Request: fold
Amino acid sequence: MKRLLFLLLVPVIIVVACTPSTQSLDRVIKTNVSQRPEGQRDVLQLTADPIPVVRVAFIGLGMRGPGAVSRMLNIEGVEIVALCDVLEKNVKKVNSQLEKRGLPKAQEFFGDTAVWRKVTALPNVDLIYVATDWIHHAMIGVQAMKDGKHVAIEVPAAMNMDEIWALVNTSEQTRKHCMQLENCVYDFFELTALNMVQHGLLGEVIHGEGAYIHGLQPFWDSYWNDWRMKFNQEHRGDVYPTHGLGPVCQAMNIHRGDRLNYLVSVDTKAVGNPAFIKEKRGVEVKDFRNGDHTTTLIRTENGKTIMIQHDVTSPRPYNRLYQLTGTKGFANKYPIEGLALNVKEIDEEIAKDHENLNAHSFVPENVRDTLMQKYKHPITRDIEEKAKKVGGHGGMDFIMDYRLIYCLQKGLPLDMDVYDLAEWCCLIPLTEISLDNNSAPVEIPDFTRGGWNKLNGLKFAQ
Ligand SMILES: NC(=O)c1ccc[n+]([C@@H]2O[C@H](COP(=O)([O-])OP(=O)(O)OC[C@H]3O[C@@H](n4cnc5c(N)ncnc54)[C@H](O)[C@@H]3O)[C@@H](O)[C@H]2O)c1
Reply:
């Protein structure tokens, strides 16, 4: 009898032992999921009443904010009604630009870090556009929605899990849009590659890479109140993950059929930034938290992987990596834009000379250029020329603002929702937890609270 029982159990034991444990989250550090209050529902594909003329108020007019104002001046159906910054000179400078263009002056708000409350409370505003330091993003965003406004917040829109959940819950409660101003998803290569993915050219995207590698030495001393260096000094981890992660998540349909499950993170010691502080400011910092180079790996529910890096101090060329590895092809943006494809995926019309193509190298430049032309994303077709003229990181910033206004004017769902914001920002607190626990895996919550598989892929509304 014992022998029979043993023989029966052996296959069961083998099956259990061989079943991949990858989706079991037993050994990861759990993170809290804020319970969805009764009567509240998700904001997937959220729409609001069309707003033919969008009245915008800007909060935060340092290095980044004024560019957003001038881009908006190039979009029809936009009125700039209020300008706000702690510093009076920043507000006056931007307002004088409006005057120079013969536009009515915007209402001015300045003086302290709480004056923005008067702006979110204004009755004649539809959209609050936030480009302050990181610490004020989420609090302004939450209050703006409570005051009945849609809100667009610069990256990263939230810096910890409490802020992320507050934005998610407030958007769900108020049914107001809360979009993170992640411009890199609108860069031309990324949009074209996304379109290729959506047409199946790369097969199934199983691995993606992204990064923010940008030596900030020329900027450190220009940030208001030294907010950016202070945050890096006090926090370990990938504190600026959204430029790298956003475009990869879009190509992988995150919360539109797949979800981020867990991450692990490693970092180097901190050398570059403390050295900068010592050299430029004569101050010895012993406890600088953030390492020079942080690398994070993520696994998704559908068995895909993502690698994200952060480095704002090493002497390297600017790099966001942007790599998509698919089962049938590969796209790479930095340092050179290239495509590699299975030979059979290349259209006869595009490349008749198959013998010269080799899946182990990039397709020749002329083939790449033809493919880039053929798969240009539909949302860029009409506005590419104007975007390049208006500018903002080569035009992607303009496309972002244009799409935001276009969708608000037409009452369409925005390209990025509050769950994108949550997923892309959560690396900030979660990489810190992983690093402080010897690179332990940390669970990434499902910010949709059960809705990640409701939508079938990412679609930009037209
Ligand atoms: N998407 C991008 O490519 C990109 C590029 C640069 C900066 N950014 C983001 O833009 C934001 C601003 O960066 P920056 O380089 O302009 O920094 P900055 O320090 O030059 O400007 C921040 C401005 O916000 C103002 N401010 C701070 N707290 C405020 C408050 N409570 N109320 C009103 N105004 C307040 C400051 O006076 C300052 O003028 C940051 O979130 C940054 O990450 C994004």
About this structure: The first helix runs from residue 2 to 18. Residues 236 and 436 are 8 Å apart (CA to CA).
